Amino acid sequence: MKKILLSAAALVMLFSCQNDTTETAPETSAVAKRGCASQEVLAAQMKADPTLALRMSKIESFTEKAMLSGRLVNGNVEIPVVVNVLYRTAAENISLAQIQSQIDVLNEDFNATNSDFSATPALFSGVAANVGITFVLQNVVRKSTRTTSFSTNDAMKSASKGIAPTTPTTVLNMWSCNLGGGILGYAQFPGGSAATDGVVMDNNAFGRTGTVSGVYNLGRTATHEVGHWMNLRHIWGDANCGSDLVSDTPTHDTANYSVPAYPHYSTCTGTPVEMTMNYMDYTDDRGMYMFTNGQKSRMAAIFVSGGARAGFGI
Ligand SMILES: [Zn+2]
Q1: Of these residues, 40, 60, 92, 225, which one is catalytic?
Q2: Separation of 184 CA from ligand 1 center, angstroms?
Q3: pLDDT digits (tens, 9 = 90+) for 21-73
Q4: What domains are there in the chain, each with its CATH number?
C-alpha cells in the first residue's frame, strides 16, 4: 500500500517533474501502442499557466479531505454528455449508433456491469469498484473540417477550427476526430480552463462499432480518458514506480501494453502483482476491465459540494 500523504508543495514539484514524462507515440497513423497524451497536455498547460499547478494542488488537498471525511457521493452522479464530431471524410462522420455505443461502454465500465468485470483476479476482487456514475447522451454536434489530422493543441475545441464545448461546467464534452501522432486520445484534468475542458478520442477508438479498429475497439480509450477527466492518474504514476495518488492500487514499474499474462510482478518495493487490468494502465481494450475503490473515492471527491466538478454533483 502506498502512502498518499503529499503536501501541496510536494504536489507542485510532482507536477513540475512530469514535464519530463514521455509516452510512446509512433509516427504512423495506425496506433501500434496505446498512446494517451493527457499528461503531456497537462505539462504544456502548466508551462503556459503557472497558476494551474496551484489550482490542482488545491484540488488534491480538497480530495484528501473529502476522502477522509467520507463525505462522498455514491451512485448519484449523472453526467450529461455532448459529443462533438469533426469529420473530413464520410467515415469520420461517425454514426449515432457508434456514439451511443460509447455511452453504453461508459455506463457499463463505471457501473461494473461490463461483461469482463468478472475476470477480475481474486487478488483484486476486494478492491474492484462499482463507481456508480452514469452518462446520458444529451446532444451531438457535427461539423465538417478540412483538417486531415488534429494534434493535442486543442484546435478541435475552438469555434474557428473545431467545435467549442457546450457548457463545460455541467456537461462532459467529448470530441471525435482524426487524431494524428499515434495518439488515441487525451483528457483535461480538473482545474484546467473551461474553454478546453473535456476528452478527445480518435474516431477509430470511439465506441465499439462503426469505424473502430484493431485492439482499441471496445470503447476503453474513453473509459481511460474520462478517468483522467475525473482526476485519475496513470496507474504507474507517470514515473518509474511512481504514485497514482491512490492507496489500493499496486505500484507499477511503468505502463503495460498488449495483454500481459497474469500474474505480472512489479519490480518496485515489495514486488507486488501489477493490476494490469485497471483502466488507467495502457493495455489493449480487452485487457482492461476494472477501477478500484480508491480510484472511485478520488473521482467522487470532485463532484461533492466545493469540488472541482461540483456543477455535476448532487
Ligand atoms: Zn492516459
Answers
A1: 225
A2: 9
A3: 333 333 334 677 899 999 999 999 999 999 999 999 999 999 988 887 765 65
A4: 37-51+75-312 (3.40.390.10)
